[in-house]
């Protein structure tokens, strides 16, 4: 899935009566699960002080990336799994007790 956010401030000025068109293009090149398109539009009254920098054009779609925190959690999970596996292997390699 890709995202589309107005840059630099994240808002677009839409005049009263102006038609807003949202378009979603589906591609079968990438495997999809779940929804094919999801939109949300937040509407607010104009602020008393209008800043022209806030009203920018929409940028081209950018690919979503996995947040760094997910990679950190995955790395620590793998490290813990390897440590537990090594600890269990060492415990089994020791001397066997003789039971009479």
Provide key terms for this protein.
single chain; mainly alpha; two-stranded antiparallel sheet; 1 helix; 2 strands; elongated
Word description of this protein:
Pfam families: SURNod19. This protein has 100 residues and is mainly α. The chain has one domain. It has one helix and two strands, in the order ββα. A two-stranded antiparallel ribbon has the order 1-2. The mean pLDDT is 72.
Give a concise summary:
By secondary structure, the chain is mostly helical.
Helix content class: 25-40%
Structural class: mainly alpha
Say how many strands there are: 2
Low-confidence stretches: none
Keywords: Membrane, Transmembrane, Transmembrane helix
Transmembrane segments: 69-87
InterPro entries: Stress_up-reg_Nod19
List the helices and strands and how they pair.
Blueprint: E1 2-3, E2 62-63, H1 68-92
Antiparallel strand pairs: 1-2
Keywords: Membrane, Transmembrane, Transmembrane helix
Transmembrane segments: 69-87
InterPro entries: Stress_up-reg_Nod19 (IPR011692)
């Amino acid at each position: 899935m890709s995202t589309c956010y107005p840059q630099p401030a994240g808002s677009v000025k839409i005049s009263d009566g102006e038609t807003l068109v949202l378009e979603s293009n589906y591609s079968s090149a990438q495997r999809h699960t779940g929804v094919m398109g999801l939109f949300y539009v937040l509407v607010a009254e104009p602020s008393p002080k209008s800043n022209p920098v806030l009203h920018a054009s929409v940028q081209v779609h950018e690919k979503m990336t996995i947040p760094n925190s997910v990679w950190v959690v995955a790395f620590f999970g793998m490290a813990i799994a390897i440590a537990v596996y090594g600890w269990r292997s060492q415990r089994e390699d020791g001397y066997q007790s003789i039971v009479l």
